[in-house]
From TrEMBL:
One of its GO terms (cellular component) is cytoplasm. This is Beta-ketoacyl synthase, N-terminal domain protein. One of its GO terms (biological process) is DIM/DIP cell wall layer assembly. It comes from the Bacteria. PANTHER family: FATTY ACID SYNTHASE, SI:DKEY-61P9.11. InterPro entries: Ketoacyl_synth_N, PKS_NRPS_Biosynth_Enz, Thiolase-like. GO terms for molecular function: fatty acid synthase activity. Coiled coil: none annotated.
């Protein structure tokens, strides 16, 4: 077996989570980072249709800014 040293950690998650401490706090408190898709990322209203057999059926996402 080869020894491995973990010397750092980094992360970027939806909900503005940008460090390990924020991530673990988010998980501990059962956070929810799913939100309406920002219009500057993708105009979901342009494609959304509640009928699952047509166009897009989702207007929410976990978006990393």
């Amino acid at each position: 077996m080869v020894a491995v040293a973990i010397i750092g950690i980094g992360c970027r998650f939806p909900g503005g989570i940008g460090d390990a401490e924020s991530f673990w706090n988010f998980v501990l408190h059962k956070g929810d980072a799913v939100a309406d898709i920002p219009k500057d990322r993708w105009d979901a209203d342009k494609y959304y249709d509640p009928d699952p057999d047509t166009r897009a059926g989702c207007i929410h996402a976990g978006v990393v800014f």
